[in-house]
Amino acid sequence: MAWTTTPWTLPSNLGLTVGPNIEYSLVQSFNPYTHEAQNVVIATALLHKYFKAEGKDADLAAYQKEDKIIPWKVISTFTGKELEGLRYEQLMPFEANSLEAVQAITPDADPFKVVIGDFVTTEDGTGIVHTAPAFGADDYKVGQKNNLGIVTLVDREGKFVPGVGEYSGRYVKDYKDEANYVDVNVDISVDLKLKGRTFKVEKYEHNYPHCWRTDKPVLYYPLDAWFIRTTALRDKMVELNKTIHWKPKSTGEGRFGNWLENMVDWNLSRSRFWGTPLPVWSTEDGEEIKCIGSMRS
């Protein structure tokens, strides 16, 4: 059981990430929406969030869909490390996210498997992280490390691309038409309920990034960008910073010094509509690239 607050990223799933030392339980129970028998895997520490204590080890054979308490039983336990490499069937398979489609982008990609990640915790969710490398920094890093590939099923307008079934062309965030608000996330949740592919759907309030200029929600999205390799001079800059007579001293040693020590390559390109375009020109074949520094150049 993987947990997410962004159902629109589920079609882009390419992996499931578990914590190497977290204990997981294989639980025999019933789906609360379809009432069909199901075995699920979840972090042992989070069992209480999805299964009622009164149902533990109750008679599974006697269960009726009208029963308020759903019986459940732990069959076995294991660490996340023991799950590494296991394969799974896609939650939402479409033409655009098939193995062939993923490998058309990254020929040697090896998606739809369980991988290990140190960022997984049992503070919330299920202890299993839905991993879509196209939409998140941690997802991208673990995807690169485990060769999951990458598939971007959302276009620059924030709509699903063709090949995502009935969701193709729909906005991934709330959209107001002439009559009301249409939320694809609600439709995805309902669809998964009817198919018995979700175990719990609920409203969950949490922080989400918004544009400070328009106050609209933003999407994490993979884009080509220009970087200056500032990390190549990081060590030198850290040493030179120590020769500066800072007033107050704590600024150089603290805030600025810490920034230098943790510096990453500088992204100097911007994709925002109010950004200043870079004066970089390229031939159509990409063989020659020139940065215009002045009117004379």
Structure report:
The protein is an alpha+beta fold and 297 residues long. Among the domains are: 7-145, Valyl/Leucyl/Isoleucyl-tRNA synthetase, editing domain (Isoleucyl-tRNA Synthetase, domain 2, Alpha-Beta Complex); 227-291, no CATH class. It contains 6 helices and 12 strands. The protein has a 3-stranded mixed β-sheet with strand order 5-1-6. β7 and β8 (181-182) form a beta hairpin. The N and C termini lie far apart (58 Å). The mean pLDDT is 91.
Q: If helices are DSSP runs of H or I spanning 4 or more residues, what is the number of helices?
A: 6
Listing every helix as H and every strand as E from the N terminus to the C terminus, the arrangement reads EEEEHHEEHEEHEHHEEE
N→C terminal distance: 58 Å
What share of the residues does DSSP label as strand, in percent? 15-25%
Major beta sheet, strand line-up: 5-1-6
Helix-strand category: alpha+beta
Radius of gyration, Cα only, in angstroms?
24 Å
Portion in helices: 10-25%
